[in-house]
Write the structure tokens for this entry.
Amino acid sequence: MPRILTYIVKDFYIKRLKTSRFIINPKLYREMNNFLLKILKAGLLVGTLDILAAFIHYIIASGKSDPFVVLKFIASGVFGNEAFVGGNIMIVAGLILHYIIALGFTLFFFWLSLN
């Protein structure tokens, strides 16, 4: 690593650690980052498995082959009936909302496990 880049990285690292009122222990900082990464990975896993289960249930229950209606239904919680005629943008909005909800529940259960 070039010397100037080493100085930039060290300077950024020190400034980032000293941004709060207290100096953060680097080991604690790494542990906190690892914990947050675990929460994010768990949230993505939970969201993916949940939406796959919802897709499979919709296909079996309705006999239709378009599971993206499930995502439009999720988006309708925010956008109302416009979500069903909104097209692909509402599918993406439903997917984003679904993962936000899944991450929220993951955070809640991680919080419960700590208490």
Observations:
- The chain has a mean pLDDT of 83.
